[in-house]
Every structure is written in structure tokens, then in C-alpha cells.
């Protein structure tokens, strides 16, 4: 478990039940001071400290008007550094607590985009790929007129094509293992003029 993942545990605890008496390293700052510290942390790309300072803001000032802004700022900062799990955490908190109806299509699009970016190893984790396809399908049905629908459609097309190549790989593997029924089950038709997902040469050593 990485340090970034471990940070989710105290965040979940304090956001769920903030209590000033439970903070052991409080600096007893005003909400504005914590907000400014978080801003400076982000400016200095010190997101570990920004996460910790946000915990303190939440614990000491659970009704602060700055929490809404800081949730979005931390989402964007972690997203920029490709720390997608933490970015999704902050975005989910923002959606749950502050998002307006008009913001939901943008938020759900951001979730799709980050799940797409997280899928960095083609030919692995097919369930993650199928979940992404389902997310895209649901989005296009629910928000057909969204400004982000074209981007979601593009992600969906790429995910579906990647899934076809993955199925073809699985089919070939079963064929090599002399399991024709299983091979036939995964057999798919690859679209003409399409290109397989690109993977670094050193990762190809671990694929079939």
C-alpha cells in the first residue's frame, strides 16, 4: 500500500466525523489560514502537506466556506500529477457535499476521463476496461446532450477497440492451450484499418 493510498484512510475518517478534540497535531489556525496554507502547498507541489493541512481544516473548521474550494483545488492538483485515486476521492467528496445539478455531467465526465487515464496497461485488467465501457454507456444515455458527450464517445470507442484486441489475445491463448471451445468464446472480428494498443517494448515481455 503506497503512502498516497494510506492518506485516504485519515481523510475518510476526518471527513466522516471531524472533531477538534481528536486532532493531535493541530496548529489552531483560522479557516482562512489553513486555506492559505493549502493553496501554498499546492503552488509548491507539496501535495502530501496539502492533504494533511486539509485534514486539519476539516477537523478544526468543519463548516468552513473554504472546504468547497479546497476540495476542487486538491482534485485538480492530484489529477495534474496523475494521482488519480486521490483526485477521484476529492472529486467524489465535492460531488457528494457541494455539487449542483448543473455540475454533475462535468463531474461524471471527469470520473470517466480519470478511469480511462488510469488504464495504462493494455491487455490487462479486463474488468476495469469493461467497467469503463459501462460508465461511458451510462453517461451517454443519461446525458446525451452534454458538452462532454463527444469526448466520452471517443473514450468509449477506444475502450471497446482495446477490449476487442484483448479478447483476440485471450482467444489465441486458449487456441495455443488446445482449448477450442474457450478460444471460440473469445473470438472477435477486429475492425479493418484499426491499430492495436501501443505498449512499451519492455512490457511486451509479459504479454502472451
From TrEMBL:
Record key words, sorted: Lipoprotein, Signal
Lipoprotein is among the record's keywords: yes
Lineage top rank: taxon: Bacteria
Keyword Signal included in the entry's annotation: yes
Domain Outer membrane lipoprotein BamD-like: 38-177
Any one Pfam family match given in the protein's UniProt record, by short name: YfiO
Signal peptide bounds: 1-20
UniProt name for this protein: Lipoprotein
Amino acid at each position: 500500500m503506497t503512502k498516497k493510498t494510506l492518506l485516504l484512510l485519515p481523510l475518510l475518517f476526518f471527513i466522516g466525523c471531524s472533531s477538534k478534540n481528536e486532532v493531535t497535531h493541530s496548529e489552531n489556525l483560522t479557516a482562512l489560514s489553513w486555506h492559505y496554507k493549502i493553496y501554498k502547498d499546492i503552488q509548491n507541489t507539496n501535495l502530501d502537506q496539502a492533504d494533511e493541512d486539509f485534514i486539519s481544516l476539516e477537523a478544526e473548521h468543519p463548516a468552513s466556506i473554504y472546504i468547497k474550494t479546497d476540495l476542487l483545488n486538491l482534485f485538480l492538483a492530484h489529477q495534474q500529477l496523475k494521482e488519480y485515486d486521490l483526485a477521484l476521492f476529492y472529486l467524489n467528496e465535492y460531488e457528494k457535499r457541494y455539487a449542483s445539478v448543473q455540475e454533475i455531467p462535468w463531474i461524471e465526465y471527469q470520473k470517466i476521463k480519470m478511469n480511462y487515464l488510469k488504464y495504462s496497461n493494455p491487455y490487462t485488467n479486463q474488468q476495469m476496461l469493461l467497467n469503463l465501457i459501462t460508465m461511458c454507456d451510462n453517461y451517454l444515455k443519461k446525458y446525451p446532450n452534454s458538452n462532454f458527450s463527444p469526448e466520452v464517445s471517443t473514450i468509449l470507442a477506444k475502450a471497446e477497440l482495446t477490449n476487442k484486441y484483448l479478447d483476440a489475445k485471450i482467444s489465441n491463448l486458449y487456441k495455443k492451450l488446445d482449448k477450442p471451445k474457450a478460444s471460440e468464446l473469445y473470438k472477435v472480428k477486429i475492425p479493418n484499418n484499426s491499430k492495436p494498443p501501443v505498449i512499451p517494448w519492455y512490457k511486451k515481455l509479459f504479454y502472451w
